[in-house]
Structure formats: C-alpha cells, structure tokens
Amino acid sequence: MVSEEHPRYASLVLRNKLVDGYERGIASAHGLIAHGRGEAFDYLLGEQTSESARNATKVACAHLLTANHPVLSVNGNTATLVPGEIAELHAITGIPVEINLFHPSAQRIERIADHLHAYGVVNVLTGFDFIKLAHIASDRANVDKNGTFKADVVFVPLEDGDRAQALAKLGKTVLTVDLNPLSRTAVASTVTIVDEVTRAFKNLVSFAQHFKSESHEYELDLLKARFDNIENLKASYALMQKRLRSLAR
Ligand code: ATP
Ligand code: MG
User: Would the CB of 229 count as within 6 Å of ligand 1?
Assistant: First the structure.
C-alpha cells in the first residue's frame, strides 16, 4: 500500500496498475520497461501537464473530431492505464478502437478485447482481419483492414518509431502521446502530446465533451492550421531543460 504522502504517489499508483495489467496478461514485460522510459521524462516535466501539452491535446482533439475515418490504436500499456477514458472517448466520438501490439499474440489480443468490452467499448477491432502496411518489415506492419488501413487520422498513443514513421509516410495524420519529445514517434507525428498518458486522456475526454457540438467547427479548423508540432516539441524540451537548470542551482 503506497502512502498518499509519498512524493511519487501518482507515479507509484500507475506502476502498480501496470504490474497488475502485466499479471492479467494485458500488458507485456517489454511494456513495463517502456513505461520506465516514460517515467524518466515525466520526472523532468514535474509530473504535470504543461501548457504546450494541453495545447497539443486540444489540437489532437480537433483532428479526431473532424476526421472522416479516425481510429484509436491501443497497445497493452494504454489498455491497462486508461480503459475508462478510452471507453469515454469512444462513446463521445464513436471512434473505433483497434488493438495493435508491439509484441502480438492472439491470446493477449483477446484478453485486451475482453477488457475493453468490459469497460464499454463496443467497436473493438482486433487486427485479425489485417493488411500489411508498406515501409515496415516485421509483423508490426499488420493493421486492421477496417481500422488503421482505411483511416485518415490515426491516434497511436505510446507508439514505436518505425510504425509512426510508416503511418506518416502513407500520408495519414498521426496523433500520439509520448513523454519523450526526442523520440522518432514524437518527431514523425503530426501532433505529439508530450504528457503522461493518463493525464493526456483525461484532458482529451474533457476537450472532446466541450468541442463535440458542431458550432465549434471553425475553431477546430483554426486549431489544426495554427499548430506546429516541432515548435511544440521544442517547448516541452525547453521546459525539461529549464527544470534541470533550476535543480542544478
Ligand atoms: P521511438 O521508437 O519512437 O524512437 P523509443 O524506442 O524510445 O521511441 P518505444 O519503446 O518505442 O520508445 O515507445 C515507448 C515510448 O512511450 C517512449 O518514448 C516513452 O517515453 C513513452 N511512454 C511510456 N510510457 C508512457 C506513459 N505512461 N505516458 C506517455 N508516454 C509514455
Ligand atoms: Mg521504439
């Protein structure tokens, strides 16, 4: 039991949640390690949502709400950490949820599908009906025919660089959540939310609730047009550097 007074309380709660997801066969062992890389960057951000991350979240929301065929691609970590928020986003926007694993196994895909159904996600795409994407050599090139393959806007939180780059090369609008502003995923994407995935999804759900009505269409178009992903990444990186400098004093 972690004390709420502990300075790393929120972070330790997430760790426990992820270990639980691993023990239930939803997250992979590799996913636990990837989370650790994220934690290191979150430490540098002060474990809070920055202004630039909030802005990127709003812009990502604008893309999701104005897409013709959006898809949310989830892996074991995302399914473990934010199943409730995935279901809420799905309910508000109708976005299909595709399971896309870095280390795929039929058994884990089925477990994740059951887990998401239990949280109320109706339209879960398992990727069993797949097509191979160009520009990727491995099994990770397989994407669902009715999801990522036909999508114009793909939301791929915690994605690997190879796949993010391939999706961008195919001309898709790529949205991601990645605490590392230097990762290939962060740089290749159209909109990168440099924030911890649980905080990012909470904010995304509230933006989606706010912007859902049609009267915001002009504002959503403006948000998309004005956004520069590299400038936004630089702002996150600068924040980390500033915090490091202030610690060194
Ligand atoms: P890339 O392949 O894009 O160059 P990478 O190989 O360093 O990056 P991966 O292991 O492929 O990283 O993907 C995991 C990414 O997800 C990491 O950049 C990590 O910072 C980020 N990440 C892990 N956990 C979280 C989390 N809870 N919230 C946000 N980002 C996270
Ligand atoms: Mg990678």
Answer: no
Give the pLDDT of residue 141: 87
Q: Which amino acid is at 207?
A: F
Number of domains the chain is built from: 1
- Domain with 187 in it: what CATH number? 3.40.50.12640
Judged by DSSP in three states, 73 sits in: strand
Asked, for residue 5, whether it belongs to a domain, the answer is no
Q: Is residue 70 part of a domain?
A: yes
Q: For residue 90, which of 80, 101, 81, 82 has the smallest C-alpha distance?
A: 82
Q: Tell me the C-alpha distance between 56 and 54, whole Å.
A: 6
Task: Please answer whether residues 131 and 143 qualify as being in contact, where contact means their C-beta atoms are separated by less than 8 angstroms.
Answer: yes
15 lines ligand 1 (CB under 6 A): no
DSSP state of 120: T
Q: Is residue 210 part of a domain?
A: yes
Which atom of ligand 1 is closest in space to residue 33's alpha carbon? 10
b or e along 116-126 (b: 16 or more beta carbons within 10 Å of the residue's beta carbon)? beeeebeebbb
- What pLDDT is stored for residue 19 in this prediction? 98
CA separation for the pair 200, 7 (Å, rounded): 21
The whole-number pLDDT of residue 6 equals 87
Burial class (CB in 10 A: 0-12, 13-18, 19+), 25: middle
Instruction: Please give the residue range of the domain that contains residue 206.
Output: 51-247
In short, whether 49's Cβ falls inside 6 Å of ligand 1 is no
Mean pLDDT per 10-residue interval, the chain, length 249 residues? 85 96 97 97 96 98 97 98 98 97 92 98 92 84 93 97 95 98 98 98 98 90 98 98 86
Alpha carbon of 183 to ligand 2 centroid (Å): 8
pTM above 0.85, yes or no: yes
